[in-house]
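Lab notebook, bench 4. The sequencing result for the construct came back, and we need a structural model before the next group meeting so we can plan mutations. Quick request posted to the team channel:

Model the 3D structure of this chain.
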Amino acid sequence: MSDCLFCKIAAGEVSCTEVFSSENLIAFRDIAPQAPTHILVIPRMHISGLSNLTNDQENLAGELLTTAVQIAAEEGLDPAGYRFVINNGEDGGQIVAHLHLHILGGRPMAWPPG
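Done. Here's the predicted structure in token form:
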């Protein structure tokens, strides 16, 4: 999508602090971090949100999660723990209409989150 910020990041049209890149995904540091470590993992393909994933994209969904686990480990978050967040829709707190997973860590997380 030509007006999607995350599509522009995935295409290299908008700069980011990249931490991972593959054929299907890109991960980068959030520009407004909510924790000492705050990384976004997004599919290169435009998918508006979690509820827009289709059954034929289950491999992509799995890759999104396993890549996030790998990045969390590489960032040194494993021993103490971390949080994954996927917001979906306006009421769910999704600001950019492109599926993305937040990796948050480096501090204790409170509950409930919202």
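Residues 58-74 form the longest helix (17 residues).
Will bring this to the meeting.
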